[in-house]
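Encode chain A's predicted structure.
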Amino acid sequence: MNLRDALCSSPTIFPLNLDPTGTLVQVVSLSESDYREASFLDNRAIKPNSRLAVIPWQELAAAAVGLTANCDFIFHISHAGSTLLSRLLGNHSHCHSVREPAILRLLVQKQYSERLSTFLGLWSRTFRSDQRTILKATSFVSEIGSELMNSVLNSRALLMYVPPETFLPSLLDGAMSDITNEANSRLARLQNRGYCKDLILANLSPGECVAMSWLSEMLSLADISKNYPERTLWIHFEHFLKEPESQLRLCFQHLAIQADASTILSSTTMDRYAKRPDVKYNAAFRQKLIAQSTDKFQVEVQRGLRWLSSNESALAHLPT
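Encoded structure for chain A:
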């Protein structure tokens, strides 16, 4: 079977990485169960027995000509339950969940926008004709969310978030590397939108920096919602956890998929840590951890909340 036939017949050949020059693409062979198991479609999806190959970008692009971008999206801020929702949707036979492909992150960072249609076509391939891809992006990819939705004209998107009262303790207690690594770019995005023009990053306390990151990511989601109000649905993760059946039903309805939410929820997915399904985890345990972290970091949590309250003009664009 030649490369074009192999690419068009199924999503088994998955584009995993681009080399630094953008001229070579590393691909890996993934089964349907491999897709279901992977929390992230990056190097963490490689197993000891994985079959890998390297293909010139031009050859891959030529072989992919004609593949149609036909998918829906999950956009989100970090620590907002997007992996859990992706897994739950993926439990439906008509959904092919594709979680955080590494190359999508590179398309943002390296500004390879001209390659977007090729990769969207590749990510839209499914194992069966009655399936549709649900593509979960990495949080900072939301910055090009409108471009992605414009590239897939019939696409719909779920916009997942948590309030700052949840986000602050969650990030302060163990996920600060994400905050520090992306702080400069998130501040730049805020300033490009006309906010925080005189803000100096070094002057922010840890809690204020987390709050700034929350605001930046939320405004990215708000832009998608503003541009595509009929094609987007906000999902407040705390509400989802309180009423999972009704909230999941809303998600399926928005994606125009007939589903029995109660059957989907009867799996063990809700009782596992979504990023590591081998670890037991549930909503009650999550709430306990957040409460402990809120108490532990109460000074920084309050600093972050005060910083947000001083940015009323930006908050006005966000869901209440």
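The chain has a mean pLDDT of 94.
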